[in-house]
Each structure stands twice: as C-alpha cells, then as structure tokens.
Amino acid sequence: MESIDLLVLSTAHDWLQAGQRVLLATVARTWGSSPRPVGSMMALRGDGRVVGSVSGGCIEDDLIHRYTSAYGGNALPDGPPQVVRYGISADEAHRFGLPCGGTLELILEFTPSRPPLERLLAQLNAGHLVRRSLDLGSGQVALATSTAPEQFVFDGQQMVNTLGPGYRLLLIGAGALAEYLATMALFNGFRVAVCDPRPEYIGGWNIPGVEQLVGMPDDVVRAFAPDLRSCIVAVSHDPKLDDLALLEALHSPAFYIGAIGSRRNSQLRRERLIEHFGESQASLQRLHGPIGIYIGSKTPAEIAVSVMAEILAAKNGVALPRTVDISSAKQAREQLDSVAAL
C-alpha cells in the first residue's frame, strides 16, 4: 500500500469525524496509457480541499467543479456509489490531460460510512493486510484480513481493493550513505528505521522522521518483523553487524535484502555465510550485493540514488536487465578497457 493511500483514508476519516461531507474516488479501470494505476485514491471535501490523486490534475479539477459548492458545483450528493468515465473520445482525453488514447474509470463514494473506515485504519495501523470490498448497489463495505497482497478487482458491481501497511526500510549502519538513502526512502513514502550499536555513528544521526532502533542487528531485525512490504539494507561496512542482520533477514519475507560492498567483499560475504553460518547458494539468491544499479556512482549521494532505484524496481516487480547489474556492468567495462589497451 502506498503511503499516499493511507494518507487519503486517514484524512477522509478526519474530515468525516469533523462533520464534513466527503467524496472518496478510486481508479477502477484504465485503458491505454494512464497517469495513475488502478486502486489509486483521492478524497474531496465539500469545500474543495483535496488529498491524493487519480490523474495528473485535470480530472481532480473537474470533480471539484462538479461536486463542491465552493466552485459553483452541486453539493456532494447522497446515495450509492457511482461510476464515471473520462477520456472516451480524443477531445475528452485532450481536455482532461490524459495521454493519447487513455481512458479512466472512477468509482465515487459519497460520504462513506465512518465506522468501517475506522476499523480499516485500525487494522492497517496494526500492520495487517485488509481486503476492502465495496458493493456498488448498496454502498455497503465489507472488511476481511488477507494473508498476501491481491490484485485490485472491479467487475462492474463490486470493487475489491487489498490494502496493507506502508512500505518499510530498515537500515543497518548510520553512516553518510544511510542518511542519503533514508532521505530518499522517506520521500518515496517508506517508513524508515535505522539500527547501529556503535555510539559514534548513531550519536550523529540527524535525519528527522527516522526511527532509531536500539540493539544488535539480529535482534533488531527479528523485532522489526519484516513482511512482504519490508526491505533491509546493511550499510555499516562492518561484517560483524551486517552479517548478523542478513542472516535474520534472509529467512524473512522481505521483498529486498542487500548489503553494501565491492564485488570482492560481496563474494567473501557469500563464502562466509555459506561456510560458517549454514547458508547455501540457493538461500543467498535473494541477497543483493553489490547493491544498486550501475550508474558510475562514486559519492554517497550517488550510491544512494543507485540503491534506491534497485529497491524501487524490486518493489514494483520490475526485472532489471543484466546491463545495469553492477558486477556485470563493471566486468563488461573492464573487458572493453582491456581490449582498448591492446
């Protein structure tokens, strides 16, 4: 679940609690190119305030003008949810800023019931995956816990959206690279935590919004309880700390596990984990190292960009080509340099 969706739901709840009328819009179906994926949400308050997004902005503007009194539209109506479609014709696509050929279908819920929204938020904040089902005929919402993320479904009568806790990043090591990586993760919507038992490092940590976890890395990883929306990155440069964290992380469902290090150090780490800790080539398949994609990065900030790009690719289910793998790219470059030197 993206952090913006959690913000939409919590803001809609707060507006409802304050006695405001609220429109909750969800992207139900798309054809062609679309600015936002299915399941994306926005909330519109009766006075025109908006949180979240279902397009590049033009559709939001149309909803504001159509449904809010502040802009001359009708007050938000009562009644069951409605389905609206944008971009059917080329003229409409151009008018609403949709890509050429793009069509977007939205489900509009008018002043959704607050108790189901409260229960949903409580379960999400407790770290649960929740399947939210909406019946368009009655407007009734049903909630059920889920064991794994599921695809968004809309069959014309019922919408099923599986929502879960936001993505999390646990950093082992509080050096300069960790600070840049934490900053990038935060603005990509991750909740970030850092662990470093070395007081000289954690004592200088100054990135606001990052939780500092106390303890040895293996204990911290266990307490962190990684799930399918968690990633763990070891950047302490201390094998005693990094290896402890990795040993725990590798036996968790975390979607990304990685450790900083050169190609040689990464290979030595794999050999060490196999020889002394009972890991195998198969169990180490999930371990990224050297971490990041190859962009010729040198500084901590550039390396953080490289690592964050690889994390986001894993999060989004994108298989990266070998040409951007650091080990493969550096090996290919060395071969070209050797040929050029002949």
Automatic annotation (TrEMBL):
Cross-referenced InterPro entries: MoCofactor_Util/Proc, NAD(P)-bd_dom_sf, XdhC_CoxI, XdhC_Rossmann_dom
Segments forming domain XdhC Rossmann: 169-311
Domain of life: Bacteria
Protein name stated in the entry: XdhC and CoxI family protein 2
Gene3D superfamilies: NAD(P)-binding Rossmann-like Domain
Species of origin: Pseudomonas chlororaphis
Domain XdhC- CoxI: from-to ranges: 15-87
